[in-house]
Design brief:
Length: 105
């Protein structure tokens, strides 16, 4: 029995966590970049690329968890390279989670 509007709560929580990590990493990278002179070699030249990598990985994980929270196949990740159109497609996917999957980790 498929009910509309259900999201798997364990994945929904992971989506929020990964999204928060992504946003914090992006904000930290922007703040560090704006505060440091790019012509000077230093720790910022190492930290900013690492923060960008963390933000990218967290973004992909947030998309993965969002897809799984809706009860969909991981194959939907293939629309991500479509950039904004891919994000719109992922956001508009219908929920296919059943009541039995609510607490799946």
């Amino acid at each position: 029995m498929i009910q509309g509007g259900l999201m798997i709560q364990a994945y929904k929580k992971k989506t929020g966590t990964a999204g928060a990590v992504c946003l914090v990493a992006i904000i930290a990278a922007v703040v560090i970049t704006s505060a440091v002179d790019p012509k000077q070699a230093g720790l910022a030249n190492v930290v900013v690329p690492l923060l960008s990598l963390v933000a990218g990985i967290a973004f992909v994980l947030a998309c993965w968890f969002h897809i799984k929270a809706k009860g969909r196949s991981g194959w939907w990740m293939l629309v991500l390279p479509l950039n904004l159109l891919g994000l719109v497609i992922l956001a508009l996917l219908k929920y296919r989670a059943t009541g039995d999957e609510k607490n799946v980790a």
